[in-house]
Amino acid sequence: MASVFGLISRVRKSFNPPEAKPLPDSKPLKFGVLGAAAIAPSALIAPAKSHPEAVVYAVAARSKDRATTYARKHGIEMVFGGPNGYQELIDDPEIDAIYNALPNGLHYEWTMKALAAGKHVLLEKPASNTAEETRKMFELAETKGLVLLEATHYRFHPVALRVKAIIESGELGAVKSTSTTMTVPSGTMKADDIRFNYGLGGGALMDMGRMIFTQMQPCTLMNNLLSDYTINAMRYFAGADPTSILSVEHELRTPQIDRKTVAKFALPGSITSTIVCDLSVPPTFKLIPAMLNFNAHIECERGEIKVTNYLIPTQYHSITVTAGGKSRVEKAYTFPDLGEPWWTTYRYQLEAFVNKVKGRKPHTWISKEDSIKNMEVIESVYAKSGLGSRPKSDYVPPN
Ligand SMILES: NC(=O)C1=CN([C@@H]2O[C@H](COP(=O)(O)OP(=O)(O)OC[C@H]3O[C@@H](n4cnc5c(N)ncnc54)[C@H](OP(=O)(O)O)[C@@H]3O)[C@@H](O)[C@H]2O)C=CC1
Ligand SMILES: O=C1OC[C@@H](O)[C@H](O)[C@H]1O
């Protein structure tokens, strides 16, 4: 019963966090949001409310009416709209940081423009459509001395770091295999969702593969938000990058869009990893709806770790560690010196981003090399599958 009350309390507070008062001796970071995006309320707007040094100050949308409605709903002060709205937001001197929540295929263009204008960027995942574009964005950020972070939010939560710590402690011996899954039932996404649009950088591997890789190397995530996340999880937990792709199978939504991808990899040290991503799992017997699956399974020499719900761990999660015939279940909602049980992955991520911009040490970070490698792996899987990389941006930055 206590755990049900805990769940209700965490969920309630994560959606309606207590508002933090600004700090007297620190100017808050002012964010501008590119796009009246579906993800922004969870990923930035709510988390910023409980952060004493973060304010969501402006939003831009292609339609000014849409931006205005969104701003009213979320208590955002400044609105930009129309064909130049995104650029006008970027050029607003009040704004310190841009949250780029545009479709994947627009990440490169608008991140390059934001960095060129001297803004830090919190960039939605996957970083862009290609590794080359990702490299260029990070190079520009470095040249300009700006912070650029690919929003791989799960990596900032205590669950991911605890799983990694168990693996690295050596308690279970070396990792032998990982399985990470990210799958969602059919009907979760509308037919015109950006994830089904090749031109905008769609596909299950783009959306779910990265996370699964990075997060799930040591664990087997059983979800279909697979590819983007799954690849990220794989590399993170295994602590290594794949040396080869053993197999790729996909089910297509359209000739260029993978609704589902299952890939198997070989990693150094004879590790084998499987990722599963599915944007639309059909109902069993055409009747029984599928469940979300955001799980990971990591087999090691002397035991295993099963992680339930590494992706939205604030709601509930479990880390089940089995060795020598005995099992224990761990929970990790907070760090000893950071966080509240209701902090979401996004709230922990915002904490790190603000600390980095303020010149303080974040509790963890996603490196440039990590983001570039994730895109390389995604592209290599798409190459092996025959579907090919998502289209490069036609934006050419000025010299
Ligand atoms: N970190 C996480 O947990 C999650 C991350 N994401 C990532 O965030 C990004 C946005 O996803 P999500 O919020 O679901 O997406 P939305 O469908 O809400 O689209 C985001 C915005 O893209 C803008 N946009 C600009 N050009 C186009 C176009 N040609 N077609 C459609 N939209 C366009 C729209 O802006 P406007 O308002 O100007 O019309 C829209 O508000 C993606 O990169 C996705 O991978 C998504 C979900 C979860
Ligand atoms: O965290 C996520 O879960 C659902 C996906 O579709 C989304 O893009 C991803 O970032």
TrEMBL record:
Keywords: Oxidoreductase. Residues 161-209 form the GFO/IDH/MocA-like oxidoreductase domain. Gene3D superfamilies: Dihydrodipicolinate Reductase, domain 2, NAD(P)-binding Rossmann-like Domain. SUPFAM superfamilies: Glyceraldehyde-3-phosphate dehydrogenase-like, C-terminal domain, NAD(P)-binding Rossmann-fold domains. Residues 29-149 form the Gfo/Idh/MocA-like oxidoreductase N-terminal domain. Its EC number is 1.1.1.179. It comes from the Eukaryota. InterPro entries: Gfo/Idh/MocA-like_OxRdtase_N, Gfo/Idh/MocA_domain, GFO_IDH_MocA-like_dom, NAD(P)-bd_dom_sf. Belongs to the Gfo/Idh/MocA family. This is D-xylose 1-dehydrogenase (NADP(+), D-xylono-1,5-lactone-forming).
